[in-house]
Amino acid sequence: MNSTKQKILEAAIRLFNLYGVANVRLQQIADETGISVGNLAYHFKNKEAIVSAVYESLFDEFSQILSTFLMSPKLTDFNHQLEHYHRFFSKYKFYLIDLFELDRSYPGIIERWHQFVRKMMLQIRKRLDYNVQRGVLMPEPAPGIYDTLTNNIWMTIVFWIPQQILKGQSLNEERFKQSVWSHISPYFTRQGLDEFVLEVEPSKIP
Amino acid sequence: MKPAFTMPPDLYAKMLDGLSNLFFTEKLGLDSDMNFYRDDFWLSDAAVIEYLQLRKGAWEINLLFAHHKTPLKFLSRRITSHSCPKRARTMAFYMRRLAAKDQRGTLSVDINDLHLTLN
Lengths: 206, 119
What we know:
Oligomer: heterodimer
Mean pLDDT of chain B: 86
Strand content of chain A: under 5%
Largest interface: A-B, 20 and 14 residues
Shape of chain A: elongated
Radius of gyration of chain B: 24 Å
Order of helices and strands of chain B: HHEEEH
Largest sheet of chain B: 3 strands, antiparallel
Number of domains of chain A: 2
CATH class of the largest domain in chain A: Mainly Alpha
């Protein structure tokens, strides 16, 4: 993608985050990019084309995050993936503002969101199973508990940023990761706790 | 927007299981796993003779490897078999030359010796 196109998309993302997709006009995107509307139209024929390109790039990045599943066998692997998730959801804050509007204006996008959500939840669930098998997490105490845990972890990853914005608090990656790990830590075995303290939170070792 | 590649959720779950299992099935090997290579290392410096045996109507090519210092350390391997004794002899000759150390580097193969049929 050439640099002007990239600049337009970056400007569009900034504006979408501030005002929501529905409330941003082409003139605003052109102003934010520092080009004329005519020049903008040369690169993207209308707003739908910009929205499609933004979502294409968003889904590309999301796919890359999903592809980091179990690149290493330790708990740090999930910690790294959480860093990617935090950066992603911070960059595309508009995802939630427009989630319910999307279905009406841009059918097709919501279906792709659903596919990504399903994959994300499957990854979280499989991570739990994997770490149980590895002896880092205790076996599921009762049927269904790890499904609920999966859902809670997913909700924290996806909705942590909006709830911070709602409370007027800053977006801090460390606090984001702590919030996610706090769901998992009660289920650590002794071995899991040792690995977590040594490798995920080495700064906290007294 | 270009159509996205999709995968059924149950297939995706199996793929994730496969990735998880890699860490349990793929482990570092032991040094002793390479013993077969060290055990057979002497073969690279062994004397080799070929011998043919008629078994079940086919000429079997066997190679006998003998240690160059302790000839009682030897190894016999059945390589292949041919129904034609002439071809078996030719193949055995080349196999022996290939398996033995070609100290002078004079080994050459004449394609006509092999009587290849192209049909």
